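Dear colleagues,

As part of the handover before I leave the project, I'm documenting each prediction I ran so the next person doesn't have to rerun anything. This entry is a single chain, and its sequence is reproduced below.
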Amino acid sequence: KQWYQRRVRGKALRHALLGSFEESILRNRFPPAGQISGFKFRMSASGLSSSPAVSLPFTAQYYNYGEAPSPYTGCVSLATCGSHGYQVPRQGRIQATILDPDNTAIRIFLVPFDVRDMPPRCHTFLRQRIYSDQTRKSLLYHIHFRFISGRSTRVYLHTDIRLLFTRRLDSSDLGITTEPTCTVDNIVPHNPQYSTINRARKPVPS
């Protein structure tokens, strides 16, 4: 059986996946119904300079959500990218692809970012959420990046990348360009946008 046939039975996901449920599964507060290994996460970053492409394995988890199957979640570790994480330019675009165990692309994310005004020894995050329509009734994809700045001008993605995704609905859902029926939100924190690193809890990169 293909990986997506191992999921719990139910109708296609049509419920809203917002608020506390979304946050709970992304923070591992909601117990999964099972997990599937063999997924890959491919990523590169480009801007004033380019970061080398990486391919990182991860295990996806799925959940029981009423009568319908919920999306998958994944946590991609950046431990193999270096002691500080994956270095990126201070402004540019991240291209990331989720591949299933059959090595088929599920989703391609194109995420612009700009942290040129980020002070040294700070951290922040960037989320991209993709909804099925303009009314934001159904969350299809969510990707969460953590940024950290060093003592110099270097910036890294650190610790891990959090994912929420659904099974690809059709060939147009890859997302190289935004479909008219989908809404994309890029979210950064405000007041403050950047927070100082607590050195007692997190080492400051160079």
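The two ends are 47 Å apart (CA to CA). The first helix runs from residue 19 to 26.

All the best with the project,
I.
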